[in-house]
Amino acid sequence: MPASPFFYVWDPMTAAALLHTPLAAAHRALGARMVDFAGWEMPLHYGSQIEEHRAVRRAAGVFDVSHMLAVDITGDSARAYLGRMLANDVAKLKTPGQALYSCLLNEAGGVLDDLITYWRGDEHFRLVLNAGTAERDCAWLESHLEAAPLRIEPRRDLAILAVQGPHAREKTWGAIPAIRAATAQLAQFQAAEVGAMFIGRTGYTGEDGFEIVLPRDDAAAVWGALLAEGVAPAGLGARDTLRLEAGMNLYGQDMDETVTPEESGLAWTVALKEAREFVGRRALEARTPTRRLLGLVLIDKGIMRGHQKVRCAAGEGEVTSGGFSPTLNRSIALVRVPRAVAPDDEVEVEVRGNWLRARVVKPPFVRHGKILARI
Amino acid sequence: MTTPKDLKYTKNHEWVKAEPDGTVMVGITFHAQEQLGDVVFVQSPEVGRTLKQGEECAVIESVKAAADIYAPVSGEVVAVNQEVADQPERVNQDPYAAWMFRLKPSAPGELEALLDANGYEKIAAEDKH
């Protein structure tokens, strides 16, 4: 085998410069394979990515996602400000704790990031940003501040744990009994706060579960308590295959500032009904999307990977994310293809020099442990 | 895991085992499968194909990436391991038993010139750190 990039070479200069979550030592103690992800030293897996994937689909797994950044936005004009900044409409947030998934757009309608906004009551909001884009997002948000007194506070003092799987909530209550009362009736996409802990019934796996935002100093104890309840530690590798099966986009791979939400399967997140003016709106309304994001299930043997070419009757496309689906036991992908391509079409993907057959499906491939895609 | 002393190795992380019938079996090392992570697809060369040493001839794909396999010695492919094609996880479970294909070498000197266990361990150690 060639010395290809996946042969992770540990470099003391790079390693010293990497950022660390409060759980870095806990990951190493579990024998995690650590990798550089967006400047953070993060666990890729703890032995077997596929076993971690299955643990989340069948029982419960916990991910350290403290590399993601919580940003609190407070002040009298917070709601109006976010109404201008986000493509989805924060006016939809009607009860405290409610969450909203949205794109952050540039003036051209390109996607700067995808994020979750929680309304914490009154003029208090919390955004959770991707690690790789957090700095750019914060600068962008700051640059659009108007005279009104508004505070944008990046919360690097917080850690984030995602507990996911059909047993995730039960196990979390076992590990942190103090949050049970406040979260037992929590609806999907809703959050509750218990002391310094912020618990959302959200995730990135297609399974039920919680995402817990908590003080950095408390992270190791909660992590340990979850493991003691039998929750499996799961790395970024499993997180990626789980989100791909769930048909969820990964920023930087399935979308970036060169494409619009409509070209990324996210038209449903852009609120255009109201007359609300938001950054990117005019450009989106002037543009006619020519491409769309769909799923593929590989019919032939092989593994689809990002950037491979797709040949369709309607023209060419590209794989944005591809890999092996442990639940379908075959390769699946997200692809950006011409608008005319539709589910059930058969297309070809260039996999290592061979054109392999694949079937177009509408993501998700898997939701709540069940296969949705036609194999 | 210890590197078996009775095998030969390449710097590309393949092991080669000489069989009594004069053929050689080819697989990937413990270190290679550890670097790759869970193996999910193995594609061996067709039986009957003639390979030159160093020629790209097979693919192993893991959850993480694809890795090319090069012919460790020149020769003709005389068998492929269907069990490993059907159960790619065998490569992780028992890398030194999970042979991918068998070659009938055409240039015997090449086999002798491959690395021994000690030589390979040094390369694997450098690769790690």
Please supply descriptive tags for the structure shown above.
heterodimer, A: 375 residues, alpha+beta, six-stranded mixed sheet, six-stranded antiparallel β-barrel, 10 helices, 21 strands, globular, disordered N terminus, B: 129 residues, OB fold (Dihydrolipoamide Acetyltransferase, E2P), six-stranded antiparallel sheet, three-stranded antiparallel sheet, 9 strands, 26% helix
Question: What would you say about this model in short?
Answer:
The complex is a heterodimer of chains A (about 375) and B (about 130). Helix content of chain A is about 20%, strand content about 30%.
Textual characterization of the structure:
- Chain A has 375 residues and is of the alpha+beta class.
- Chains A and B meet through loops of A and α1, β4, β6 and β7 of B.
Major sheet description of chain A:
6 strands, mixed
User: What structural class do helix, strand and pairing data of chain A support?
Assistant: alpha+beta
Number of strands of chain B: 9
Outline of chain A, from the CA principal axes?
Answer: globular
* Largest beta sheet: strand ordering of chain A: 10-11-12-9-3-13
